[in-house]
């Protein structure tokens, strides 16, 4: 695990949300489609926005746990020399707890009425619809209103689809036909998302989802990498250089950090219980030396010569000796695997704290969007939020320090969250029930593809230029916002 301490920090901070969403992407369309079926029209936008807020609460929880757990190396334990159960594994377990609790909660929730109709359970579907009606009427202050149904359009039952080819009576034949029929039905449902009357809406939603995801996730990667780049530049500016050292019969038992030693000679020296952090030895000679109980981070020996040197209980693996020559050297109890340590790495605490602040900044935007969703309308919030987010990108020109970049990150996240909430609500309301989850799932998958593309493009520009990421993100967000304003207003629309 070369350079695992610094690389893991950057990878987690910039890719954490992306990976997490990819893993549970299949559940998101189902959750929104399911929840929308039980909401009254007058409060549908507000309550769907509250649902979106719990997504961000989960993000805050994950960021807070990362900040509180991962940098604490003392929480780890070893199983042999090649396997360490580090604090980041504890973090993964802690993040799994909400998922487990959600599985338990699902057992107490009613089934979708439409699904019950499809499988022929009409009485159960009627009871759930009545329960939804009575709950909504009590919330409106009209508990005396009686639930009545004039007509129910029953979807074709799933079992009916395989009756044609069930004559053989063999279970594998029925199973094959059922799977084939289901896949064909999924394909037909997907293609109907591009049929009248939702074809134009699907095309516009595709543009909005793609641009918002590309700009948001692209800058989400770019922000932390730029902050880390600023930290690296500042850290590199404080490096200390030592040249032509001649040290003999000396015992090193202290920490060396951010140093470069060139053309040195170390004769009969002992390096005992030391920590090397970002230390490089170049063109140096080590003769009759002993390295014992050594922990290293970003430490390399380049073009060095080791003669009659002993290494005992160190993590100095072969890859740390770059173009070096080892003559009659002995290695005992070399620690292999991930020797990750955050104890002496303050930047790790800082990175996770910045991630926590960036995630926390979306909470006010979530609350505001939920309260105003049914008042100012979805389109105004979607277009306005994306345009303002695009304009806020230009403030990045002035981000020359860590604190300024953190401020820009919080501002950007706070503005874009309203666009995400309103886009989720609009997507749910524009599709009829028979293709809502499929349409939402397609757009969600497109969102992930745009996020991957944004990660690749923006990530490759870190440390090269600010102009391209700023102009690119601003352009796609503003254009996406203008397209979003062309969508139909769904505030008073009854779900089809």
TrEMBL record:
NCBIfam families with a match to the protein in the record: synapt_SV2 (TIGR01299)
Gene3D superfamilies, per the entry: E3 ubiquitin-protein ligase SopA, MFS general substrate transporter like domains
Family membership: Belongs to the major facilitator superfamily.
Localization annotation: Cytoplasmic vesicle, Secretory vesicle, Synaptic vesicle membrane
InterPro entries the UniProt entry points to: LD_SV2, MFS, MFS_dom, MFS_sugar_transport-like, MFS_trans_sf, SV2
Record carries keyword Repeat: no
GO molecular function: transmembrane transporter activity
Organism: Accipiter nisus
Segments forming domain Major facilitator superfamily (MFS) profile: 1-491
One Gene Ontology cellular component: synaptic vesicle membrane
Official protein name in the record: Synaptic vesicle glycoprotein 2C
Membrane-spanning segments: 48-70, 90-109, 205-223, 349-372, 379-398, 404-428, 440-461, 467-487
Membrane-related topology note: Multi-pass membrane protein
Record GO biological process: chemical synaptic transmission; neurotransmitter transport
Keywords for this protein: Cytoplasmic vesicle, Glycoprotein, Membrane, Neurotransmitter transport, Phosphoprotein, Synapse, Transmembrane, Transmembrane helix, Transport
């Amino acid at each position: 695990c070369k350079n695992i301490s610094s690389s893991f920090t950057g990878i987690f901070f910039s890719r954490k949300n992306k990976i997490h969403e990819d893993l549970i992407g299949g559940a998101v369309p189902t959750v929104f489609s399911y929840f929308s079926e039980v909401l009254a029209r007058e409060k549908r936008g507000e309550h769907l926005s509250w649902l979106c807020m719990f997504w961000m609460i989960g993000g805050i929880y994950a960021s807070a746990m990362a900040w509180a757990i991962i940098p604490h190396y003392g929480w780890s334990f070893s199983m042999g020399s090649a396997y360490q159960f580090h604090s980041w594994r504890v973090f993964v377990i802690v993040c799994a707890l909400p998922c487990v609790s959600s599985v338990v909660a699902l057992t107490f929730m009613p089934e979708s009425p439409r699904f019950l109709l499809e499988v022929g359970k009409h009485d159960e579907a009627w009871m759930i619809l009545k329960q939804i009606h009575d709950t909504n009427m009590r919330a409106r202050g009209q508990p005396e209103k009686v639930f009545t149904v004039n007509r129910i359009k029953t979807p074709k039952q799933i079992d009916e689809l395989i009756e044609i080819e069930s004559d053989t009576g063999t279970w594998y034949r029925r199973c094959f036909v059922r799977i084939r029929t289901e896949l064909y039905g999924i394909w037909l449902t997907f293609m109907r998302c591009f049929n009248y009357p939702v074809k134009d809406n699907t095309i516009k939603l595709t543009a909005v989802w793609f641009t918002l995801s590309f700009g948001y996730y692209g800058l989400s990667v770019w922000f932390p990498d730029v902050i880390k780049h600023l930290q690296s530049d500042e850290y590199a500016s404080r490096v200390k250089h030592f040249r032509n050292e001649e040290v003999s019969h000396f015992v090193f038992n202290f920490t060396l950090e951010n140093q470069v030693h060139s053309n040195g000679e170390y004769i009969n020296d002992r390096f005992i219980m030391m920590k090397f952090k970002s230390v490089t030895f170049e063109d140096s000679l080590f003769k009759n030396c002993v390295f014992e109980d050594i922990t290293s981070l970003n430490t390399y020996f380049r073009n060095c010569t080791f003669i009659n040197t002993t290494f005992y209980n160190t993590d100095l693996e072969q890859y740390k000796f770059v173009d070096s020559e080892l003559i009659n050297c002995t290695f005992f109890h070399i620690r292999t695997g991930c020797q990750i340590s955050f104890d002496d790495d303050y930047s790790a605490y800082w990175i996770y704290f910045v991630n926590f602040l960036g995630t926390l900044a979306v909470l006010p935007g979530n609350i505001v969007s939920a309260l105003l969703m049914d008042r100012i309308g979805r389109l105004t919030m979607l277009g306005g939020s994306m345009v303002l987010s695009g304009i806020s990108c230009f403030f990045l020109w002035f981000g020359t320090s860590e604190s300024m970049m953190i401020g820009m990150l919080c501002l950007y996240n706070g503005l874009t969250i309203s666009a995400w909430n309103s886009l989720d609500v609009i997507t749910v309301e524009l599709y009829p029930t028979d293709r809502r989850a499929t349409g939402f799932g397609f757009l969600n998958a497109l969102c992930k593809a745009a996020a991957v593309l944004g990660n690749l493009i923006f990530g490759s520009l870190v440390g090269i230029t600010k102009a391209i990421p700023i102009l690119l993100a601003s352009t796609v967000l503003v254009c996406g916002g203008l397209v979003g304003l062309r969508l139909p207003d769904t505030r008073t629309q009854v779900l089809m």
